[in-house]
Write a structure and sequence with these properties.
One of its GO terms (biological process) is proteolysis. The protein has 91 residues and is an alpha+beta fold. It is built from four helices and three strands; from the N terminus they run αβααβαβ.
Length: 91
């Protein structure tokens, strides 16, 4: 095995080991688009366009991944979404 192949193999192993979790936002019949968009901008640091696109996906598809990352990083964000009255979970 050449040095280049060994380094590439190590890089692939590291990227596989970093398991990213996702915050999934679910549709409901309670919250307005504006509330969802504002909450995503504040909580997930989305741009207004990103937040609007996620809100549309949630509305039409029933759910949307709104943030990915390490579990420890997602817990406070998911809690803020829940505190704002949105339906979300970390998967």
């Amino acid at each position: 095995m050449s040095t280049q192949e060994k380094v590439l193999e190590e890089v692939l192993e590291k990227s596989v080991d970093q398991s990213n979790n996702e915050i999934v936002l679910y549709n409901d019949d309670v919250n307005t688009f504006d509330h969802v968009i504002e909450t995503l901008i504040y909580t997930c640091e989305h741009t207004p366009v990103q937040a609007e696109q996620c809100a549309m996906l949630v509305h039409y598809k029933g759910k949307c991944t709104v943030k990915t990352g390490a579990y420890e990083e997602l817990v406070p964000r998911c809690s803020k979404l829940l505190d704002a009255g949105l339906s979300a979970e970390i998967v």
